[in-house]
Amino acid sequence: MLDFPLWKKIWLWVLTLVAVAAAIPSLYNATGGEWPEGLPSPTVNLGLDLAGGSHLLLEAESEEVAAQRLENMEEAVRAAMRNAEPRIRIGDVSTANGELSFMLDSAADIDRARGILEPMMQGQNLVREWDLSVVDTQRMVLTPTQGGTENAVNDAMESATEVVRRRIDELGTREPTIIRQGDTRIVVQVPGLEDPEALKELLGQTAQLEFKLVDENALITNIQAGIAPPGSQIFPYAVGSDFEGQSVAVKRLGGIRGDSLTGAQSGIDPETNEDVVNIQFDQQGGQKFAQLSTQNVGKQFAIILDGEVLSTPVFREPILGGSAQISGSFTAESANNLAISLRSGALPVPLTVIEERTVSAELGQDSIQRGLIAMLIGSLAVIALMIATYGRFGIYATIALFFNVLILLGIMAGLNTTLTLPGIAGFVLTIGAAVDANVLINERIREERKRGRRVIAAVENGYKEASRAIYDANITNFIAGVLLFLFGSGPVRGFAVVLIIGLFTSVFTALTLTRMWVSGWLRAKRPSDINV
Amino acid sequence: MKLLKLVPADTNIKFLKLRIPFFILSIVLIVGSWAAVLTQGLNYGVDFAGGQEVRLTFEQREEAPVGELRQLVGGLGYGTPVVQEFGAPNIVSIRVPLPEEVEETPGAATEIGNQVISMINEEYPGVRTDGNETVSGKVAGEFRQDAVLALALAMLGVAMYIWIRFEWQFGAGALFALFHDVSVTLGIFAIFQLEFSLQIIAAILAIIGYSLNDTIVVYDRIRENLKKYRKMPLPELLDLSVNETLARTVMTSLTLLVALLPLLLFGPASLFGLVLAITAGLFIGTYSSVYLAAPMLIWLGVTSDSFVPKETEADLQEKKARGQV
After folding, report:
1. Taking burial as the number of CB atoms within 10 A of a residue's CB, which of A88, A95, A132, A372 is the most buried?
2. How far A334 CA sits from the closest chain B CA (Å)?
3. Structure pTM?
């Protein structure tokens, strides 16, 4: 066990020094310095509980995705039936119970309709997204499959994450972390941000902009009673708009959605002195908007944002330029927020904040400082105790401990992991494990000497006999660490990460590095007795 | 240089003589702990209870006016707030339970937090806001579930490994010792009504890790001695093993203690609960390794045969051939 060929020694030193080098930028930053740009800079991120900042957990209302999907399918089916040659007439369309069903006017069309719809049932990647069935000879029912809904939610979450990222980038905060978590959640962490109100306002806005035709035939009494005429929907006016408190009926289909924008800016209308948002459609959206306005000159339409009507202007003339102005109920700030949200795209699904934490940076700084001082005192006490008890072997153990901390930091930096408060508990446990390994070895060497073994044999046996318990103990902790990482939430995982990496570094430093140093010393001096 | 020896060279303390009284004590501790947990309940922090929690430091005072704060915040009309010291006498955490309808409305909860903060700032100038946290009931429920799952799986997982590496009796003994450690720690938190948060889960995990370390060291020595002294009665052999590893046990516990004490005394207030739990666990874990994990082996019937390879059919044939049977 004490045999260390040169190549092995070189390897061990290279490994050690690389890991230690990786720790340097983090340590340098911790002392308040700025690591020069351009140099490689792996750093340990500090969790929000240490660095201060805001943490938001957002959850998507996935039922909205399903509802949206149903609506899109309805439009697609209507269009497909209308464009069929000859046209297939349908009626009694319903989207109740999460499925789309409609009657064919003539049962004879059933095979033709099926032929047209069948290709629409298939999604990408060979996943069947809808099931198509016929009941009572001429009613067709389209039911979303589980796989199809999952795909849709997944797509929506992916683009929602992207939209969230773009919106936060617009705020100009530094290094936000935005990660999807589980099926329907997004974690947002912004270091240094102490007032997350603006952020929440920005993320709380879905920014689904819709232009829909007002149903001018709807009876006001019906609207007030909340009864929508067939084919129409009732939307309330937004708070702060001209008709706050009232509602308006709009045609459910045939409008356009404002998710195909190329730009949005807040501004002030020079004529009315009102805060407005100017939007530009992309080519396709512009064409649709031109078509809608051309076909409906003189008619009233509603500008709807996130289910609330901002205003109901009239198409005075066809709007062909591909740009439009939205007004109604804005303040300078809310106009600016809406512009940002529109620029970064609409959220495909509304998000709600289900967990929110803000830690002041001051507290974080205070925590780090006091933590470092305490760790320094603790380390000195441990070192004194180790050296007083084990002499030279205690010195080796101390140096090993020192390297253990550096290597652990280095690996954490290299893997770009985050150190949190519970992570510090993991650190303490790791250092405990490393100390324990050295104690085990040294006690065993003492014991072997007491039994009368010669120096080399005693050291050799000490390492050999002690390493069994060391490995067993560390493997068990490793198993626990992995299980924690897989099944634990947030802080528990922070603990597990440090624990898992730390187990490797403490076994490496306490068992391998000290053995190399001890063997080097034994070879050089060949002592006949050791003080241990 | 004369080296320090914390434990004299050849100790022969009859640890296991007192195994039955100590076992009874342990059972009483476990039962008492669970009784405390079930009757008094754990003082859940915002992580597990859900709601709104603000943490404040009264920078210009020695001590935060906990009683006055309770009254002040209670006056807001959101139910009785939980106001408690948080790591230092001048730091408090204030938790306000959220009315159900507020939980449904995003932003409303933080609004309550801000209301609390601004009200206290008016009344007591020079208060620093350290944190403002909202956890919805749904997420808190998931946190509780995850914590229980992670703890249970971690304990079962390590017990399985010990079973494989040693014998089933060792696995069962270690599992029981861990159960004891976790129970007693929970009991301490219930009796003293210390705030129980996700951080404390991390602390309990550290305790499990440490206690396990201890147990494995003792078990390893027992395994070694079982092979070495096949005729020695088990209680005597266990005593020998515990005595042989005593120097290591004391030294390791002491080093960890000197590392933890500064963190407890001078460390950040936010770590206080965590470090306190680990420190308490250090003693609990050491005790359980010696007085629970080891004697369990007697009651579970470990014999020296457990680690001696069984004679195979081939061995028997050979013996027969030599005329030894």
Report:
1. A88
2. 17
3. 0.76
Q: Please give, one letter per residue, the 3-state secondary structure of A92-138.
A: EEECHHHCEEEEECCHHHHHHHHHHHHHHHECHHHCECEEEEEECCC
- CATH T-level fold of A6-52+360-525: Multidrug efflux transporter AcrB transmembrane fold (1.20.1640)
In degrees, rounded to 5, the angle at the alpha carbon of residue B274 between the alpha carbons of residues B269 and B277 is 125
Return d(Cα A510, Cα B50) in angstroms, integer: 43
Query: What are the pLDDT digits (tens) for B97-139?
Result: 777 666 556 567 777 888 888 888 888 887 888 888 888 888 8
Task: State in Å, rounded, how far the first CA of chain A is from the last one.
Answer: 19
**Distance separating alpha carbons of residues B272 and B269, to the nearest angstrom:** 5
Q: Which residue of A has its CA nearest to B217?
A: A469
Residues of chain B with CATH 1.20.1640.10: 15-40+140-299
With residue A393 as reference, give the H or E element that holds it.
helix A361-414
How far is CA B99 from each of CA B46, B77, B106, rounded to the nearest angstrom?
14, 10, 13
- Restricting to B residues 59-98, those with a Cβ less than 8 Å away from any Cβ of A are none
Q: Does domain A204-358 have CATH number 3.30.1360.200?
A: yes
- Quick check: A43 and A26 in contact, CB under 8 A? yes
The answer to whether residues B61 and B88 touch, using CB atoms and an 8 Å cutoff, is no
Rounded CA separation B86/B72 (Å): 18
What is the rounded CA–CA span in Å between residue A410 and residue A403? Answer: 10
Nearest CA-CA distance, residue A388 and chain B, Å: 6
CATH code for the domain defined by A63-145: 3.90.1070
Q: Is the minimum CB–CB distance between B102 and chain A shorter than 8 Å?
A: no
Q: Bridge-partner residues for B92, per DSSP?
A: B56, B85
Neighbouring CB atoms inside 10 A of A385's CB total 21
How many Å apart are CA B293 and CA B222, to the nearest integer? 11
Query: Domain residues of chain A, as ranges?
Result: 6-52+360-525, 63-145, 204-358
Q: What is the pLDDT of residues A443-476, one digit of tens each?
A: 899 889 888 889 889 999 999 989 988 998 888 8
Strands A209-213 and A256-257: antiparallel
Tell me how close the Cα of B224 comes to any Cα of chain A, in angstroms: 9
Topology of domain B15-40+140-299, CATH: Multidrug efflux transporter AcrB transmembrane fold (1.20.1640)
Strands B127-135 and B51-58: antiparallel
| Among A358, A48, A345, A51, CA closest to A170 | A345
Instruction: Give the integer Cα–Cα distance in Å for A295 and A314.
Output: 12
Gap between the Cα atoms of A101 and A144, Å rounded: 12
Interface touch B157/A436, C-beta < 8 Å: no
Distance of CA A104 to the CA centre of its chain: 46
Largest CA distance in chain B: 98
Q: Which residues of chain A are modeled with pLDDT < 50?
A: none
Query: For chain B, where do the domains classified as CATH 3.30.70.3400 start and end?
Result: 51-135
Q: Is the pLDDT of residue B324 over 60?
A: no
Q: Which CATH number fits domain B51-135: 2.60.40.10, 3.30.70.3400, 3.10.180.10, 3.40.50.1110?
A: 3.30.70.3400
